[in-house]
Amino acid sequence: MAEERPVPAPGLFQRVFKDPEFRARAAFLRRVALFQDLGARDTGHLIQSLLEKTYADGELLFDEGDIGRALFIVERGSVEIFKHGTEGAPQILASAGPGDFFGEMALLEELPRSAAAIARSETTVYLLYRTRLFGLIQSRPRVGVMILNQLARLLSARLRATSRRLVSNDPELVGANE
């Protein structure tokens, strides 16, 4: 079973300006659509709220029906998001690779997951738990609001794209990934 560990976080000045590993992690996160509006200092505060976890090839990250508590950001590797099919065969909904994120609804509500996720290679993810996001909102309101604002924009865009695919009645587009 994969073990969660806090993302190392020395003093902010040292992290942002001197630690090459931290700078690389911060640069990676600023390329993720959800965090693209964050500056260096804001990204530093975000990193303090993340946990890092590595999954083995074939390891389940979460199952359909599990209570969602965290957003997953793929740092390396690949993940398939799927639903359990009625005849036992999984129905693949999406694939996620480096820079992609999924499970974002867990940041808004703790409800059962609507799909499952499995690592398709050794995969490292950053987890942003709902409780940690709320802690960030309390300690750094501006950062939390920026993340939630971007999350709302991305969810809105995904909903519009899903609506277009469903209206198109094209079976190829209904399960398509954006």
Give a brief outline of the structure.
This protein has 178 residues and is α+β, with helices and mostly antiparallel strands. The longest helix is centred in the last third of the chain and has 28 residues. It is globular, with a radius of gyration of 17 Å.
Description:
The chain has 178 residues and is an alpha+beta fold. It has helices at 12-17, 20-31, 40-49, 130-139, 141-168, 171-174; strands spanning 5-6, 51-55, 60-62, 70-76, 79-83, 91-96, 101-102, 116-119, 123-129. β5 and β6 form a beta hairpin.
Name some characteristics of this structure.
178 residues, alpha+beta, Jelly Rolls, five-stranded antiparallel beta sheet, four-stranded antiparallel beta sheet, 23% strand, disordered C terminus
